[in-house]
Amino acid sequence: MASMLLPLWRYADFQGRSLRGEVAAFGVGLILLWLLAAGFALAAHVAHERGVADIEFVAIGGLFAGVFGALLIVPTIALLVRRLHDLNLSGWWLLVALVPYLGQAALLVALCRAGTRGRNRFGPDPRGRLFVPGRVG
Question: Is residue 129 part of a domain?
């Protein structure tokens, strides 16, 4: 659970490195939250179709999903940049994902690779280090 929340603690931290496990745990957390939001929107739609809920209830469900997704854009990008740093790549490599299909697949393969052992140009090896919010180093 802590790994899922770590990118939120490091909300706009584009410095340093992140491990594969951090990305995977955050991805699982995002999928679970997406399923929750989709379930809420579906329940709102079904309730509206049956005449149990007003259209405002459906709109609130969509608004919730939209705002929630917008709030997670920055921590997600920051996490991916830190993961690329662990591979000793610049965060600008994230732009590869803008190439449909091929770029996204290449980025996924890169993110699944093992990171650089030891110190690289983006900082020390994060393996074995415990992140404590508010503490630097």
Answer: no
Does some domain include residue 124? Answer: no
Q: Is residue 57 part of a domain?
A: yes
Number of H helices, E strands in the chain: 5, 0
DSSP conformation letters of 9-55:
HTTT--SS---HHHHHHHHHHHHHHHHHHHHHHHHHHHHHHTTSS-H
| C-beta separation of 79 from 23 below 8 A | yes
Residues linked to residue 120 through DSSP beta bridges, in sequence order: 123
The answer to whether residue 54 sits within a structural domain is yes
The model's pLDDT over 18-43, given as tens digits with 9 standing for 90+, comes to 999 999 999 998 898 888 877 877 77
pTM attached to this predicted model: 0.78
| Burial of 23 from C-beta contacts in 10 A (0-12 / 13-18 / 19+) | buried
117: left (phi over 0), alpha (psi -120 to 50) or beta: beta
The first and second tokens of residue 81, run together, are 């940049």
